[in-house]
Amino acid sequence: MSMQWLEHVKWTEDGLVPVIAQEVGTNKVLMFAWMNREALRLTAETQQAVYWSRSRGRLWHKGEESGHVQKVHEIRLDCDEDVILIQVEQVGGIACHTGRHNCFFQKLEQEHWIVDQAVIKNPEDIYHHE
Amino acid sequence: MSMQWLEHVKWTEDGLVPVIAQEVGTNKVLMFAWMNREALRLTAETQQAVYWSRSRGRLWHKGEESGHVQKVHEIRLDCDEDVILIQVEQVGGIACHTGRHNCFFQKLEQEHWIVDQAVIKNPEDIYHHE
User: Fold this and answer.
1) Angle at CA A120, nearest 5°, toward A117 and A125?
2) A5, A108, A119: which to substitute to probe chain B, counting the most B Cβ within 10 Å?
3) Span B107-115, mean pLDDT?
4) Deepest of A96, B13, B101, B107, by most Cβ within 10 A of its Cβ?
C-alpha cells in the first residue's frame, strides 16, 4: 500500500530498472547501474544507494566493501517511467571500482578512447583491507 | 579499420549500448536512450545525437521531427565499456517529448512522484507542423 510509488516504475522483463547516479553539487555522472524492486525500496528507505548486481546476482549496497557509500539526496523517474536518476553524495569521492572519481573516464578523441581521469586510490587499497 | 574504437564497446546481445545524454554547461541529465553500432558511428561522425529507437525499430536522429537536435560535444565510455555518456548542447532547450527541458521531471517525495518541471512547449506544437 505505502509502496505504491514502486508500481509506477516500468520494470524490465528481468524486473530491473536502469539507474544513473549523479553527484550532488557538480552534477557529474558517477556511474550507471541497475536496481530491482527491493534495491529501489531500500535505496529510498535507507537513503543510501543499493543496486542489483547482475554479475553477482544479488543486492549490492554500494560501498559495502570500499566504504564509498552513496548518500541519496534525490530520486527521479523519467517520462517513460523506466529509468531512474539519483542525486548522491559520493563518500570518499570515489565512485568507480578502478579508484577513479567516476566511471566515465574514457573520452573519444580522434577515434581513440583516451583516459583523462587519474586514479585517486589504488583499487587494491580500496578492496583488500588488512 | 578506422572504426576500431567501436570495437571497444561491449554491445548487448541485441547489439545496443545504453546512452546517457547530459547537457553541456549545466551537466543536467537530459535523457536516457540506446544506440546501436550505426547510431554511435553516426553520432561521432555528424556530431549530432543519433539513437536507436527500440519501439520503432529504426535509427532515430534526435530532433528529426521537432528540430530539437543535440549537438554533441563529447563522447565518453565507462569503465566496463558498456555504457556511453554524451555531452550535448540541446537545441531549443527541450529534450523531452513531453515538451520539458529534460525527461527526469518526476521526483520522489514522501512516497509520491511529484512533477516539478514545467512544460516549455506544448507537444502538439512541437510535433505537428502545419
Assistant:
1) 135
2) A108
3) 97
4) A96
Is the pLDDT confidence value at B2 over 90?
no
Chain A residue with minimum CA distance to B4? A111
Which residue of chain B is at minimal alpha-carbon distance from A113? B5
What's the pTM value of the predicted model, to 2 decimals?
0.96
CATH topology (fold) of A4-93: Ubiquitin-like (UB roll) (3.10.20)
pLDDT in tens, B24-40: 999 999 999 999 999 99
Q: What is the mean pLDDT of residues B101-129?
A: 93
Say how many Å lie between the first and final Cα of chain B, rounded: 45
Cα–Cα distance measured from residue A21 to residue B73, given in angstroms and rounded to the nearest whole number: 21
pLDDT-flagged residues of chain A (< 70) = 1-2, 128-130
For chain A, which residues make up each domain, given as ranges?
Answer: 4-93
Separation of alpha carbons A41 and A51, rounded Å? 10
pLDDT of residue A10: 98
